[in-house]
Amino acid sequence: MKQLMGVINLDHELDKLNELTYFRCGAAVPFASRYRLIDFVLSNMMRADLESVGLFVRRKYRSLMDHLGDGKSWDMNRKHGGLFILPPDWNDPTDTSLGDLQHYHNNLDFFKRAAAKYIVFSGTQHINSIDFQDLYQFHMEQGADVTLVYKKIDQLQPEHDLCLRVEVDEENKVTNIHHEKDHHNLYLDIFIMEKKLFLEQVEYCIAHGESYFFRDIIQKNRHKFKISGYEYKGYHSVINSLESYYKNSLELLQQDNYFGLFKENPVQTKIKYEAPTRYLESANVSNSLLANGCIIAGTVENSVLFRGVQVRKGARITNSIIMQKCIIEENAIIENVIMDKDVHLSKDRILVGDSKRPFVIAKSSKI
Known about the structure:
Blueprint: E1 4-9, E2 30-31, E3 35-36, H1 38-47, E4 52-56, H2 62-68, E5 82-86, H3 101-106, H4 108-113, E6 118-122, E7 126-128, H5 132-142, E8 146-152, E9 165-168, E10 174-178, E11 185-194, H6 195-207, H7 213-219, E12 227-231, E13 236-238, H8 242-251, H9 255-262, E14 278-279, E15 284-286, E16 289-290, E17 295-296, E18 299-301, E19 304-305, E20 310-311, E21 316-318, E22 321-322, E23 327-328, E24 333-335, E25 337-339, E26 344-345, E27 350-352, E28 359-361
Parallel strand pairs: 1-4, 1-6, 4-5, 8-12, 14-17, 15-18, 16-19, 17-20, 18-21, 19-22, 20-23, 21-24, 22-25, 23-26, 24-27, 25-28
Antiparallel strand pairs: 2-3, 6-11, 7-13, 8-11, 9-10
Domain Nucleotidyl transferase: 16-181
Domain Glucose-1-phosphate adenylyltransferase/Bifunctional protein GlmU-like C-terminal hexapeptide: 282-348
Protein name: Glucose-1-phosphate adenylyltransferase subunit GlgD
């Protein structure tokens, strides 16, 4: 869509997944047996055929850049437009911008050169399958300056505590933006606005010593703009803590959740050519999600296994998440565990975590 460009802003997403974010940013954390968290928003933008997408990163982005490459897996390796990975570059001694305004100020050319007239902004912590074309049409029909995306949550969870809430009237107008924990309309860190208005407000923010665009322009000045609320009704989960990562990963083993996320809108990721998973005669697998390249000779129950995992004979994995190329030796027992990639667990070892606070093994460990 030539009228629309995308921005994925990671600046405000803190790395709170403990061992999983020691060496990578949150957007690069593996999820759902073969994906990274950033794959979901990138796939949403790919389906909307956005002209260009800018990714603003500040720290621990080596793993993320390796995953994204030139954007080919999301059809964004184009001659004109496509994916732009924009690391921080503060070489201008006259630059007085702060927070995520530093990204916008130092990359004004990215916005000005794009032909698109509207920008959709998103983070990566809210997993969803939103239709950005439908959001754009809603924004135009409302005649709004800014349109925010929200999800009405029936059952609030601990991971929702950190999320902003929005209040919306019968005419889809946003009347308030706040942090009241008992409110059920969660802001999904997605909004759309005209590029010209955005650039004007960036200059205003910098001139007045502000730091963060959404907080200091939209949230603090909601009476200054016409702000509409777009209700998203599809699958949604929030990954902003280790506990929420574990819970939402295992909840994908429920068919309704899995099909809600993947059936209608396939998700793209980095292509890796590996053989299908092999199930040996002694294998016993139930209610689990396994990627390709695995070799299974033991028991796997209610678990998520990533590419290339090896489970030896007699080993048992229950309610756990085992990442890429881990090796579980004979007769080892794993329960309520998150194991980062390239971990080697010796035979006869027993690792048991709590169902609400899983035991986490850091990347490349040998136990």
